[in-house]
Amino acid sequence: MNSGIAPTDAARALLSFWRAAGVDMDEAEAVYAGSAPIQSAGGAPAVVARPPARRPVRVRSAPEAPVETARAMAAAAATIGELQAAVEKFDGCALKATARNTAFSDGALDAPVLLLGEAPGRDEDEQGKPFVGRSGQLLDRMLGQVGLSRKTNVLISNTIYWRPPGNRDPTQGEIVACLPFVERLIELSQPRLLLLTGKAAAHTVLRREDGVMKLRGRRLNYVREGLATPINTMVMLHPAYLLRQPQHKRLAWADLLAAEAWLKELGVELSARLPGF
Ligand code: URA
Fold first, then answer.
1. pTM across the whole model
2. Ligand 1 pocket check for 92: Cβ under 6 Å
3. Probe target for ligand 1 pocket from 106, 135, 139, with the most ligand atoms within 8 Å of CB
4. What pLDDT, in 10s, does the model give residues 229-253?
């Protein structure tokens, strides 16, 4: 299809869209940097054949970028229920087309702890709820060890709301499109503690790329423009990782104890501890 836009203009427009969305495009932009004349092998500007004159094409204004739509929809949500309805209506993430259900959240809406994972898998896609498969069952046992439960004091969500086909990693575009809803959920729930399980959630929310082994178990602050106060944040190992690497459960146990100690200091009421994971 001929849009009437030169390929380089279209590429530049795409690059600036991704940059505006917060993606590091330095390397890609270097490819298109400047429009220096093409050099011939001998160094003199090459002769470039001019394309035949074309009738001017009327360019329609570009549709709003998905991330802009997501931002507007997220900002308009005044409650977590409204935010869920907005996510369910949002069509800017291509994963929605292949998913069976939207898996937005599960747990207590007024919980003092908000836990975020990565993306729904097959069971979550079927049931439309995060963390209900094998790793969700392990997560429940882990949380129960320190008096946390989605029935009373934890709200669980993800940084992506639709299952990526075959459980592949979400793309940058999919992450960026969902991020305004993730950030709004943090704002609306104002948790006393934000728990990020695994590398993907930690990198997406904290916008830093340190390894999860470096981030885990530490007292961190989540700070963002528009938030009244910084939010206490802790990274912990992902239960799916622990299913593959059970020898690291002792590290997860240490993280949970660190989270428990912090919550107690903050005066958050915890339920009775349940037996081991
Ligand atoms: N892994 C996640 O990160 N989230 C889920 O909801 C399920 C598995």
1. 0.79
2. no
3. 135
4. 999 999 999 999 999 999 999 999 9
Beta bridge partners of 231: 222
Q: Is 233 in the pocket of ligand 1 (CB under 6 A)?
A: no
Whether residue 141 sits in one domain with residue 51: no
d(CA 274, CA 132): 19
**Domain span including residue 13:** 8-57
- Counted domains in the chain: 2
In a domain, 3, yes or no: no
Ligand 1 probe mutation, 158, 196, 241, most atoms within 8 A of CB: 158
What mean pLDDT is reported for the chain?
86
Q: Is residue 182 one of the residues assigned to a domain?
A: yes
pLDDT-wise least confident of 31-35, 112-116, 143-147, 184-188: 31-35
Say yes or no to pLDDT of 193 above 70. Answer: yes
Half-sphere exposure for 139 (CA within 13 Å, toward CB): 28
Angle between helices 249-265 and 134-144 (to 10 degrees): 50
SS3 54: coil
